[in-house]
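Quarterly update, task 2.4: shikimate-3-phosphate-bound model.
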Amino acid sequence: MQTVTIHPLDHPLTGTRRVPGDKSISHRALILGALAEGVSDVVGWLPAADCYATLHVMRALGVPVEHDPAMPTRIRVHGVGVHGLREPDNVLDCDGSGTTMRLLCGLLAGQPFFSVLTGREALRRRPMRRVAEPLRRMDASIDGRDGGNLAPLAIRGAPLHAIHYNMPIASAQVKSALMLAGLYAEGETIITQPGPARDHTERMLSAMGAPVHIDGNTVRVHSLRTALHPLTAPDGSPFVVPADISSAAFLIVAALLVPKSTLRLVDVGINPTRTGILDILQRMGATWTLDNVRADAIEPTADLIVQHQPLHGTTIDGDLVVRAIDEFPIIAVAATQAEGETIVRDAAELRVKETDRIGNVARELRKMGAEIEPLADGFMVRGPTPLRGAVVDSHGDHRLAMALTVAALIADGPTTVHGAEVMADSFPNFIATLLGEAHHV
Ligand code: S3P
């Protein structure tokens, strides 16, 4: 286990940073690119543990993926076509990646072969019924521990039929799993989501020529009768993965909290299903500037310029929670410095993320002096509170480790973060990038 000690910053954060590629889109580039006929050339790919898990799984399914460790952000996926995957000769290791396991569950359910999905202990504790149950309604054969809820999951591929599914929770992982299964199912699969979960699968599949139709919160997918085009930009150049707004969020909040800071974050994905963090910070009184907006790409991007500003408390609930679902550890840190109360509701999903993000965020931030109360479906923070250096733990959660690191920058003494290696699940070189010491800008 890796331990890092972070010292309070005695200078502002300034300059330009490029945060790594979007994790959700990097997974999908591999999975969807695999189904195309032709080569998907992808730049800006995220070379982090979660996406490597997907890369290894796709290779084990017979998909050639070129990846040169000397150029880790580029991949070339040699699509095998919709019916070209082959039976893996061993279990498929999803490591700690819920996205890999859930999306693959949907993809594998309709294949004419047997496969087993497993992963590290924390992933084997996460609920899989949310994907397995609707897939079973499509005639999938999926079994696992705890009555088919927990990995390892054994999937006996079968012919599927389409269903109309009203998702009880707004989850892009569940939606994407059902869309992938829908490509193989007889009939039209209709998925209605209660809120706007991220729509990368819809955008990317549509760009590849798949029969996907969107009407508000309802997505319709037909079984595939024609080949999918490889993933490219609209002008035929390589597909560019935007910088991950969920990774940028840590630097945005760091710039807001560290006095006199100004940061420019380049090429950040601003897909509206992901920009809840910006809306939340705006409600807390923050402003920022967008520059170099590119709205014509499959995934829109912009440079984001943000500087130190005072914040005030707000209430966050409903659809806004869905559009910022990964950002609550760092929102909690921002709230400790905001004037008044910040209340997060309708966010019970946080209990089943990489860890229980309500319990663990509250537990660790309290060690630093924060006034934070866990609620059944969220949390409440009273601010502003001066933070003190402490010994804290990541609980194996990359976003909690990074949020605590940002909190440490404004604490009154050194903070030791145990289990810091997990930051690499989504953000390699996080600390160097945050502090402006990384070489790749
Ligand atoms: C993801 C969807 C979200 C998010 C996760 C990535 C995706 O999960 O928390 O980090 O790539 O589809 P849910 O769909 O379970 O909310």
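Highlight for this quarter: The chain has 15 helices and 25 strands.
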